[in-house]
Design brief:
about 400 residues; alpha+beta; Butyryl-Coa Dehydrogenase, subunit A, domain 1; Butyryl-CoA Dehydrogenase, subunit A, domain 3; 3 domains; two-stranded antiparallel ribbon; 10 strands; globular
Length: about 400
């Protein structure tokens, strides 16, 4: 694919049409919607506002677009999905995460498609697709992040129920979700983990305010389980499959986070170009300085390299290849290179780039997070080396 910062997909007419429609929606509807309400990435947005975005996105065919046609989607390939995800963050829209259903919607719930019973699909997945319900995914604990096997949340069989006890943290979309996919250790075992569909209004389940990350986005919550009784029919998959379900989702998510990071880096590049054209220093635009031109060249090269790696890996996954190593490589390289882009953007903006509330400053903080979340840089290096050596 020939490199342009705003990519064209002339070799895929369907994708090109989707990208153009998405850009139009973001520019003409979603961003004005946010501006009218004063919504920024750090705004604590309530459920009714989010539902408006979900429903409008569904009307336009974007919400759940990745799902198979029988579930109302268009069965997008991963390459196509990556292209759309890049466009979302490149737009600078604060609610871009709600257009395809990343935050509580079909993209988050879609992981259950291959494990749920027909009854579970009808009770949980279908309402999410219709923008009637929202979900979160809960596997992380205070002492069980990269080493998920240290989790202490337990599920104890009790007749036709399971009883959950424990606490999950950093659950994205928990503040406005209706149910969660929860991975817990089977009580009395050392290495058996299962996944459960848990309605968050179940007695014994509390949704607590989570920590606000450095990005400022208020989209996370903790889940506390105290003798929370879950019907046995809410077991997702089979007993002992919990980590396979959870880690399988995490592996794909590592790849799918990457285009969002690339889009944010692209946004930082665009803002830097605009600033360097308009900022006059010693009688000429900042852009006239070779030092600034070199920074912009390095930023564009990082974006190109990251996008090429991610698209190549997505194409391999679309062919059915295993991408465990490559997904780790993509997340490692993309998180590091896109953060470099953000760092250069701050440098180009000078003091303005250090000001809280400036878009470049917020992008910098958000991209810094992704050198840690969904696997630290060091964890990815360990996984790559272990797989290859």
């Amino acid at each position: 694919m020939t490199f342009t910062l705003e990519p064209s997909y002339d070799d895929n007419p369907r994708l090109q049409e989707l990208v153009e429609r998405l850009r139009t929606y973001l520019r003409d509807e979603l961003i004005p919607f946010e501006q009218e309400r004063g919504i920024t990435p750090e705004t604590k947005v309530d459920r009714p506002v989010l539902e408006q975005v979900w429903k409008r996105s569904r009307e336009l065919g974007f919400y759940g677009i990745n799902l198979p046609p029988e579930y109302g989607g268009q069965g997008l390939s991963l390459v196509e999905l990556c292209a759309l995800k890049e466009e979302l963050t490149a737009s600078g829209a604060a609610l871009s995460h709600s257009v395809l259903g990343d935050m509580g919607g079909p993209l988050r719930a879609g992981a259950i498609l291959h494990h749920a019973t027909e009854d579970q699909l009808q009770r949980y997945l279908v309402p999410v697709i219709r923008a009637e319900r929202a979900c979160c995914f809960s596997i992380t604990e205070d002492d069980a992040g990269s080493d998920v096997r240290r989790m202490t949340t337990t599920a104890t069989p009790d007749g036709d129920h399971y009883v959950l006890n424990g606490r999950k943290v950093f659950s994205s979309a928990a503040p406005f979700a209706d149910f969660a996919v929860v991975v817990a250790r089977m009580a009395g075992t050392e290495e058996s983990y299962s996944a459960f569909l848990v309605d968050l209004d179940t007695p014994g389940c509390q949704v607590l305010d989570g920590e606000i990350p450095m990005s400022g986005q208020q989209m996370e919550g903790d889940l506390l389980f105290e003798d929370c009784r879950i019907p046995a029919e809410n077991l997702l998959g089979e007993i002992g499959q919990g980590l396979r379900i959870g880690i399988g989702r995490i592996t794909l998510n590592r790849l799918l986070h990457c285009p969002s990071l690339i889009g944010a880096a692209r946004r930082a590049w665009d803002l830097s170009v605009d600033h360097s054209k308009n900022r006059v220093v010693f009688g000429r635009p900042l852009l006239a300085l070779q030092a600034i031109q070199h920074k912009l060249a390095e930023m564009a090269t990082d974006i190109y390299a990251a996008r090429s790696m991610v698209m190549a890996t997505a194409a391999r996954a679309d062919e059915g290849a295993a991408i465990g190593v490559e997904a780790n490589m993509c997340k490692l390289f993309t998180s590091e290179s896109c953060f470099r882009v953000a760092d250069q953007a701050v440098q180009i903006h000078g003091k303005a780039g250090l000001t809280h509330g400036h878009e470049v400053e917020q992008i910098f903080r958000a991209l810094r997070m992704f050198r840690i979340v969904t696997g630290t840089t060091e964890i990815h290096k360990n996984a790559i080396a272990k797989s290859l050596v």
